[in-house]
Amino acid sequence: MRPIIAGLVFAATLCAQPRVVELPGKSPLVTIRLVFTTGAASEPADKPGAAALTASMLSEGGTKTMTYKQITEALYPMATTIESYSDKEMTTFVGETHVDNLEKFYALMRDAVLHPGWRAEDFTRLRDQQLNALRVSLRGNNDEELGKEALYNAIYKGHPYGHEDLGTVSSLQKMTVADLEAFYKKHFTQANLIIGLAGGYPAGFAERVKKDFAALPGGPADKFELPAPTPLQHNQATIIEKDTRSVAWSIGFPISLKRGDPDFPALLVAQSWLGQHRESGGELYNRMRELRGLNYGDYAYIEYFPRGMFQFQPDPNIARHQQIFQIWIRPVEPPNAVFALRLAMYELDKLVKNGIPAGDFEKTRSFLSKYVNILTKTKSAELGYAIDSKYYGMPEYNEYLKSALAKLTVADVNRAVKKYLHADNVQIIGVAKDAAAIKAAISSAAATPMHYNSPKPQDILDEDKKVEVWPLGLKPEDVTIVPVTSVFE
Amino acid sequence: MRILRSVALCLLASACFLSAADKIFPYPYTQEDLPNGLRLITIPTDYPNIVSVYIVVGAGSRDEVEAGKTGFAHLFEHLMFRGTAEYPPAKYTAVLKSAGAASNAYTSSDLTAFHTTFSKEDLPTILSMEADRFQHLDYSEADFKTESLAVLGEYNKNSASPDYQLYETMRGTAFKVHPYSHTTMGFLKDVQNMPEGYQYSRDFFSHFYRPEYVTIIVAGDVDPKKVRSLIDERWGQWKRGAYKPRIPAEPAQDGPRRAHVDWKMETIPQLAVAWRGPAYSDDSVETAALDAIAHLGYDQNSPLYQKLVVEDQKVEAMEAQAPANLDPELFEVDLHVKDAKDLASVEAQVKAVAQSFVEKPVDAKQLELLKQHLRYEFALGLDNSEAIASTVASYVALRRTPETINRYYDMFSKLTPADIQRVAKKYLIDRNLDVVSLTHDGGAK
Fold first, then answer.
1. Which CATH code, of 3.40.30.10, 3.10.20.90, 3.30.830.10, 3.40.50.720, is assigned to B34-235?
2. pTM for the full model?
3. Which 108-137 residues of chain B touch chain A by CB within 8 A?
4. B257-440: same fold as B34-235?
5. Which of A249, A282, B194, B348 could be disulfide-bonded to B148 (CB atoms 3.0-4.6 Å)?
6. CB-based contact (8 Å) between B149 and chain A?
């Protein structure tokens, strides 16, 4: 029986050696997470996309001794895969197996990461895949994710976070296998590795894994010396012009707050109240969708949450030292598009001026205290959160959040709102067909009234009168139109 | 302690995972029918603290048989959040919020499911509140019209994806009479006309939101006796209905069909190759045999995938889906083809693989590896109470009992190469073929 301290066992951390996070148990399933604290923010300036493509070469390419086909065949009877994803500061490999198959599976996963094959044919296939993910899946097929990613790139322009994790079309076209090998040698080091293990693995397994990964190069861990993103002096908008049925909006600005900081739980309460992801309880959802039928949903965030239309809970291991505040407005019918943007800005302004109502504080705090159990409902997620906590240098997330929330007051929340949020100096991204008309409407003081198909209560109609002329603070020169084909080029 | 308590049942479960002789669904459960026809399935899982409730209504887009009224099953998924006298929307939301619940709903061809996952102490509140909305939903015409706009917003969101357009076109190509001819969203013109359908929506509720159509699945840290008493108390008085939709059967297809979608934006060319197949079955080998073909012929380990995706690199992604619906559905292979000029050759190779199942029996060893793969895959998927409830819900739509999972996998474990060949001969034939392609301007068609 291993000792268990608050559900986690942190191995002693020696300089430049892989760190280990364990969640041992007797479950017949074993999860392995190998998290390298490197990513897009560590890429050379002319090699955007190198971290993600290196990760794919390891997880979906051959090793020195096995082709990708042989690996697929070997994994097949175990019904498992080796998956990878890469963000600004973390590159993650995840595998889950039944304990019966642990030895065979671990050997494959270990060799994938320690002994990549760097074959030209794997490279061509995976580079094409990444190019298509950028050009087709993101730019062509998904207006909302496009808007959200473009928002990050605009806010972090000229900053190590300032390009897409997948890279750019031109950088991927020029990328070579040698570029990836160089990135691997420099950044896939012992010092950058956090090994995560959960489930019913045998005694001695963790020690063995740690010893195996001591074969990685030594050298220092990546240091993310991140400048503060350049603050906007006034609102700015970019409209991505694209032949699409409706208009998607994303708005946001950087915040100097991350998980583990003293004010994080307080701002999390405000964010959850305003727009808890994919739940129907948020203020934006209620005011925009439920009362007015503007669209399918409206949400707010204080941490990066990619792929939000496909999942209800965020993936762990996309930890970042800098975050933005963001509002996601799902596609709106064009006649009401500018009204929707004004309404979101109006609601943000209300939050900043008034804070959250005292009556809603208790409900939101109760929600978050319990919802944290759902965030960590699988062993894999629990392990992912534990690794993130280690990276942020903070206690186990579940307990941290519950105890911080218990001490919180509504005054704390509203103080955090005043300190970190604002309704001016905001970056706005729109994805729209008639970009010129949208530009004209958002940079003009003319009213953009809402069109309803049913009678509305007088208080809503009265509020609409304010919203339809709500100043967006945009002059024509603050609004840029870009064709979709130029984004991520 | 979370870790230690989660262990005991998993160990019990693990004993079942690998032996084909044992039941694949490892959790003991209770299944009870109330006098009004409501069915309750309770599955204690021993994953601590959390409870997941899935309420499955046996009505989906399959039941939309009236012209001009497609999409109403899905609209109803939305309307169910529009409140009652006892729980107006704001109160309903406040209760969910206090419970820290993750709550949502989805609609498919055969079912509408409402699901909530939360901490166990809130079970009485949640079951009571759900009972109220299923029996006493009350929304105004104005609210109805507002909600129909949110549904149009959802259509708009989906329509930005070429995958959705390809799917929608395939529906209309393969089915002419049966409601599987439309997606769960419904036809765009019907979605746009929804605001005028208030009275029809009341009828829809009165037809399908009745106990005999509903199965409640409660999985997690629960005691079945306590759950039953909560259900009796709040759901027992719900009145049974009498409506049965007349769903028209799709006539047999009389030859191959083909359609093409011109996509306005830059996109990777797409191809869907489908054959009209059977309805789901857990007492014949037909569904299992087609599922085996989907894997052996087209999954990541298949020779065709290795050739098209890994070696030749003409295709970026390929997957196949065997039919598992209440009525006869499609066996479909979907592909993203890198260059439109390869569409014809890729299509020919997909068809040649199907033909190979018709012509010769599969390798018995490969079939055994597949059986092992599927048993591990199923076991790996049941890693929390929500996943367990969700898995059961998908089968409940088909046979209203988790036992169908055991029967189906049992059928699979007995599957022989000869069975697969017999089923391939019956369904994977030219007469049943439907092909839809999608390209950006000027792509080969």
1. 3.30.830.10
2. 0.89
3. 117-119
4. yes
5. B194
6. yes
